[in-house]
C-alpha cells in the first residue's frame, strides 16, 4: 500500500517517492533541452534586436553625415554643423565626423570651437595630415608663427589619404605662401628648393614653382624652373613672362630680351612684359661697355647718355621736389657743377682725342642717376636704363 491516512492527511510512502524521482529524472533531459533552446532563442532574439538597433543608428549617422558633406561642399556651413552634430548623436566619438564638424565650424569662423575638436583629434592621431594642416592654418591666423610652422611641417610629412605626394606638395606650397606673407623670404626659398627637388616633369607645376621663386626673389632658381617648364615645348605666355622677369632681375638682358619678346608675342595684352621689354631694349642700346661696339658707336652712346643725365639733373633740380634739390650746393659731390665742367669735352672729337673721358663721363652719368633716384624718385625710360647699366658696371 503506497498511501496511508494519518489524522486525515495523505502520507507519501518511500516507494512512491522513488517512483516520482524516477519519473522526474526520465523527463529531465527533455526539460533541460527545452530550457536551453528557450534561452538560445531569447539570446538570438535580443542579439538580433540589438543588431537592428545599432544598424539603424549607423544608417542614421551615415545619412546625416552624407547630408553634412553635401552642405559643407556647398559652403552651407550652418547646416553642415547641424548635420554633423546629429550624426555624432548616433555615432559618438567618430573621428571622421568630428573632423568634418571642425571644418564646418571653421567655415563659420568659430575658430575656438574648431580648435578644441582638432586638438582632441590631434591627440588621438598626431600623424593625421589634414588635422595638422587645419591646426597650422589656425595658428597662422593667430600669428603664432612657431606653432604654425610646426604644424605645417607635421602636415608635410604626415599620413594622407589618397595621393600623398600631391597632398604634401600642396601643403608645402601653402607653407611657402604663408612664409612669403610674413616676409620670411629666406625660409620660403629653403622650402621651395625642397619642393622643386621633388617635382615631377609636369610643366604646369614647374612654372608654378617658378612663380613662387620669383615672389621669393630667388631669380636664379625661378629662371631654372621656367626653363624646365618650357622644355616640353609648352611655351606658355605666363612662363615666358616669368622667365623674362627672372632674367631681367639677374641683369641678363640679352636673355630677358628674348623671353620678353616671346611673351609679348604670345600675349599682346601683357602690359608689364611690354614695359619691361622696352626697358631691356634701352639697356642693351645704351650700354657703352659692350664689347662688340665700334668706337664711333660707343662715343655716340656716351654723348646721348651724358645728355640724358644732364636733363634728369635739371628736371630734378627745378621740380622743387620735397625730397630736396640737386643743385650744386645741395647734392654731395656737386653733380651739377661737375656736369657743367665736363660737358664741353663730351663730343665726338673730344672722346676720340681722350678715350679716358668715356669712363669719366659714364661715372658721372651713373652718379647722377643714382642720386636723383634717391632725391626725386624712381626714373623712367632712358634714365631707368642708365641706372640699371650702373648696377651692371658695379659688378663688372
| Rg for CA atoms | 42 Å
How many helices? 18
- Classify the beta-strand content into a percent band: under 5%
Low-confidence blocks of residues:
1-6, 321-333
Multimeric status of the protein: single chain
**How would you sum up the global shape?**
rod-shaped
Structural class, from secondary structure content? mainly alpha
Average pLDDT reading: 86
Largest sheet: 2 strands, antiparallel
- Fraction in helix: over 70%
The side-by-side strand order for the widest beta sheet comes to 1-2
**What's the total count of β strands?**
2
Q: What is the helix/strand order? A: EEHHHHHHHHHHHHHHHHHH
Report, as a whole number of angstroms, the end-to-end distance: 140 Å
Task: Please give a structural write-up.
By secondary structure, the chain is mostly helical. Among the domains are: 88 residues, Alpha Horseshoe (Serine Threonine Protein Phosphatase 5, Tetratricopeptide repeat); 100 residues. Helix content is 75%, strand content 2%. Strands 1-2 form a two-stranded antiparallel sheet.
Amino acid at each position: 500500500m503506497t498511501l496511508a491516512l494519518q489524522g486525515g492527511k495523505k502520507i507519501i510512502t518511500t516507494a512512491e517517492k522513488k517512483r516520482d524521482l524516477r519519473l522526474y529524472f526520465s523527463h529531465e533531459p527533455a526539460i533541460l533541452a527545452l530550457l536551453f533552446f528557450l534561452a538560445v532563442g531569447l539570446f538570438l532574439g535580443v542579439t538580433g534586436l540589438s543588431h537592428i538597433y545599432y544598424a539603424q543608428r549607423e544608417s542614421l549617422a551615415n545619412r546625416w553625415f552624407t547630408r553634412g558633406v553635401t552642405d559643407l561642399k556647398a559652403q552651407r556651413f550652418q547646416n553642415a554643423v547641424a548635420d554633423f552634430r546629429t550624426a555624432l548623436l548616433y555615432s559618438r566619438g567618430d573621428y571622421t565626423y568630428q573632423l568634418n564638424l571642425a571644418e564646418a565650424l571653421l567655415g563659420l569662423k568659430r575658430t575656438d570651437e574648431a580648435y578644441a575638436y582638432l586638438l582632441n583629434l590631434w591627440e588621438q592621431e598626431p600623424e593625421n595630415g589634414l588635422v595638422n594642416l587645419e591646426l597650422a592654418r589656425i595658428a597662422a591666423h593667430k600669428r603664432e608663427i612657431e606653432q604654425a610652422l610646426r604644424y605645417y611641417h607635421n602636415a608635410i610629412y604626415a599620413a594622407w589619404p589618397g595621393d600623398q605626394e600631391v597632398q604634401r606638395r600642396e601643403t608645402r606650397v601653402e607653407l611657402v605662401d604663408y612664409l612669403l606673407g610674413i616676409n620670411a623670404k629666406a625660409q620660403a626659398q629653403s622650402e621651395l628648393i625642397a619642393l622643386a627637388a621633388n617635382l615631377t616633369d609636369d610643366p604646369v607645376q614647374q612654372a608654378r614653382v617658378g612663380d613662387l621663386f620669383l615672389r621669393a626673389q630667388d631669380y636664379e632658381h625661378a629662371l631654372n624652373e621656367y626653363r624646365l617648364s618650357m622644355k616640353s615645348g609648352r611655351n606658355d605666355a605666363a612662363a615666358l613672362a616669368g622667365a623674362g622677369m627672372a632674367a631681367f632681375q639677374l641683369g641678363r638682358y640679352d636673355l630677358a630680351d628674348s623671353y620678353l619678346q616671346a611673351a609679348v608675342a604670345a600675349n599682346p595684352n601683357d602690359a608689364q612684359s611690354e614695359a619691361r621689354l622696352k626697358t631691356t631694349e634701352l639697356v642693351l642700346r645704351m650700354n657703352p661697355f659692350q664689347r662688340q661696339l665700334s668706337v664711333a658707336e660707343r662715343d655716340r652712346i656716351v654723348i646721348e647718355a651724358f645728355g640724358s643725365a644732364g636733363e634728369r639733373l635739371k628736371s630734378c633740380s627745378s621740380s622743387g621736389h620735397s625730397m630736396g634739390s640737386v643743385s650744386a650746393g645741395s647734392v654731395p659731390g656737386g653733380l651739377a657743377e661737375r656736369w657743367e665742367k665736363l660737358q664741353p669735352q663730351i663730343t665726338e672729337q673730344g672722346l676720340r682725342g681722350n678715350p679716358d673721358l668715356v669712363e669719366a663721363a659714364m661715372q658721372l652719368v651713373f652718379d647722377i642717376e643714382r642720386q636723383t633716384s634717391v632725391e626725386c624718385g624712381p626714373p623712367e625710360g632712358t634714365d631707368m636704363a642708365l641706372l640699371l647699366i650702373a648696377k651692371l658696371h658695379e659688378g663688372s
